[in-house]
Design a protein that fits this description.
IUNH; globular; alpha/beta; 310 residues; 12 strands; binds alpha-D-ribofuranose; two-stranded antiparallel ribbon; glycosidase; Ribo_hydro-like; 13 helices; binds calcium ion; Inosine-uridine Nucleoside N-ribohydrolase, Chain A; hydrolase activity
């Protein structure tokens, strides 16, 4: 039986790599891909997601459903410096998009699918959590009918990638993240920068992909990203943030987790979007999040390359 999943994306470069991994794995029944504003606008994220499905030749099998076009309470905050204005690092610019997003809203799609497949759906969230927060507010029972939620976001022991304390997905919509973390999901796993920064795709890995339309796409879409990453971090690589969240959905053994109480800062001048992890249970609150503390990075990279290789 394939694992029933919904991918929630703000397709950007690494979301696209996560979609490639999910679909090419052959182990996921992707019920749908919901889009949200984040790296780029909702419209651009949706267009990019359709392009990636066309690259996979799955555009007629997997539907794309649009969600929120802005955070719950804050203005949009795009990340064009990292993903380019188009969101795919300039790759597939001349690819015509011949499919459109499905009718309806992502929030209703998530609720409907979770109701229809109670206890079976894994939500893989690789974007700001606006859609899931809206879904929880609209249908609180969702919390008990979802199988599990895997969130790429946050950082609990390192520095942020937008501000000194905040990771992008949390920073864009901290109110949404707080709602999701406080909703009471029994099985919520946080795949934060603490582990995704160890899942680094290098030029050697790309060479190992061989020569295929997907391999050429991966090379083209990550080229600029790797340059930016080198400037910022001194290593030429593409951090596989979102693909690792998909990897965890495929195989939880790839990471070590520990359950802690985690909350999100929403009222701070310097720390909005910070995922605050109560390692010593100072607040005496029930642990709500399985925090990823370690990752078998080499094993994950092998899985990624093996799955995408021609
Ligand atoms: O911080 C990395 C996350 O923010 C990834 O999901 C990336 O796509 C951006 O959305
Ligand atoms: Ca993303």
């Amino acid at each position: 039986m394939k694992k029933k999943v919904i991918l929630d994306v703000d397709t950007g470069i690494d979301d696209a790599l996560g979609i490639l991994l999910a679909v090419r794995s052959g182990e996921m029944d992707v019920l749908g891909i919901t889009t949200v504003n984040g790296n780029v606008s909702l419209e651009q994220a949706t267009k990019n997601t359709c392009k990636i499905l066309q690259l996979l030749e799955k555009e007629h099998e997997i539907r794309v459903i649009q969600g929120a076009n802005k955070p719950l309470m804050r203005p949009t905050f795009f990340e064009h410096r990292v993903h380019g204005k188009d969101g795919l690092g300039g790759a597939l610019l001349d690819m015509p998009v011949h499919v459109e997003a499905a009718d309806g809203h992502a929030v209703d799609f998530i609720v409907e699918q979770v109701k229809q497949h109670a206890g079976e759906v894994t939500l893989v969230m690789t974007a700001p959590l606006t859609n899931l927060a809206l879904a929880v507010m609209k249908y609180p029972e969702l919390v008990h009918q979802v199988k599990e939620v895997i969130v790429m976001g946050g950082v609990v022991q390192g520095f942020g990638n937008v501000t000194p304390t905040a990771e992008f997905n949390m920073y864009v919509d901290p109110e949404a993240a707080k709602i999701v973390f406080q909703a009471g999901f029994p099985d919520l796993t946080l795949v934060g920068l603490d582990v995704t920064r160890k899942a680094l795709l290098t030029d050697d890995h790309i060479r190992a992909l061989g020569d295929s339309p997907i391999a050429r796409y991966v090379k083209e879409s990550t080229a600029e990203y790797m340059e930016r990453y080198y400037e910022r971090n001194g290593v030429r690589a593409c951090a596989l943030h979102d693909p690792l969240a998909v990897g965890v959905a495929l195989n939880k053994q790839l990471v070590t987790t520990r359950k802690y109480y985690v909350d999100v800062e929403t009222k701070s001048e310097l720390c909005d979007g910070q995922t605050v992890c109560d390692f010593q249970n100072r607040l005496s609150k029930a642990a709500n999040v399985h925090v990823c503390t370690e990752v078998a990075a080499d094993e994950f990279l092998e899985l990624f390359i093996r799955t995408l290789r021609a």
